[in-house]
TrEMBL record:
EC assignment: 5.3.1.30
Gene assigned in the entry: iolB
GO molecular function (one): 5-deoxy-D-glucuronate isomerase activity
Gene3D superfamilies (alphabetical): Jelly Rolls
Enzyme class label: isomerase
Descriptive protein name: 5-deoxy-glucuronate isomerase
Length: 269
């Protein structure tokens, strides 16, 4: 199966990734494009969800909670943190678009011991990482420091012509205190929207070694291995990451050949 999932732009549901069609165990990822006034209803079942308002306005109701009037940014490239909603297992959910809405449904196995809650932009930690041509801005929507059962959710901005998810790192092996096993998806957006990026997914032994060119609203799946991204000159990059695995902790290993990018030797004079 290809690791690049093309957007179905002629449909309301742009993306539909499940553990079954992805061939892995944890992550589900959907993107819906709703017109103002349209409603999306679903049951969370045995999974927890993080609903991310990538762009637009919405009201969300569950069996136990009512969250009206959510949203603020009308494009992810406003670079303000998003509004999001955490949904536990065993819930019925109804999302109504209060304006045209780009909605990401991030999911993973859950155990139902947490309440539904809104994650406001003010609760999202904003980080600026890297240096030289390897800088990015990170919005930690649902990090491992905040309550959830399996999910980790983050969005990343990379300026045109720069790299991110770099130096190459991986999180595919359970090494207590050093590395956790996490599947990952990248939902790509570009400004201007006709842009694309390059993303490579590869392992040390090169048993997996794939280079892809995701376009706007495409998804790259990372079942294992390293997964750097290079933004093309002229096109700013945004991606929404979902991670999940047996241990809800983001611990990773750098690829030894490229770890020097983190040192005082970069940028080179």
């Amino acid at each position: 199966m290809s690791l690049l999932v093309k957007a179905q732009r002629s449909k309301r549901q742009l993306q539909h990734i499940t553990p079954q069609n992805a061939g892995w165990r944890y992550i589900g990822f959907d993107v819906w494009m709703l017109k103002k006034g349209e409603t999306l209803d679903f049951d969370s079942g045995e999974r927890e969800f993080c609903l991310v308002l990538v762009a637009g306005l919405a009201s969300v109701k569950t069996r136990t909670a009512d969250f009206p009037g959510l949203g603020g940014r009308m494009s992810p490239f406003e670079r303000t943190p998003p509004w999001s909603v955490y949904i536990p297992p065993g819930e019925t959910v109804s999302v109504t678009a209060d304006a045209d809405l780009e909605l990401a449904l991030c999911s993973a196995p859950g155990c139902g011991d947490l309440p539904a809650r809104v994650i406001t932009p003010g609760e999202v930690n904003v980080e600026h990482r890297g240096k030289g041509r390897n800088q990015r801005t990170v919005h930690n929507i649902l990090p491992d420091t905040q309550p959830a059962n399996s999910l980790l959710v983050v969005e990343v901005y990379t300026d045109e012509g720069a790299t991110s998810s770099w130096p190459a790192h991986k999180h595919d092996t359970s090494l207590p205190g050093k590395e956790t096993q996490l599947e990952e998806t990248y939902y790509h957006r570009f400004d201007p929207p006709q842009g694309f990026a390059f993303q490579r997914v590869y392992t040390d032994d090169r048993s997996l070694d794939v280079c892809m060119a995701p376009y706007n609203q495409d998804v790259v799946m990372v079942p294992r291995g390293y997964h750097p991204v290079a933004a093309i000159a002229g096109y700013n990059s945004y991606y929404l990451n979902v991670m999940a695995g047996p241990d809800r902790k983001w611990l990773f290993s750098w690829e030894a050949d490229h770890a020097w990018i983190n040192s005082e030797g970069y940028p080179r004079p």
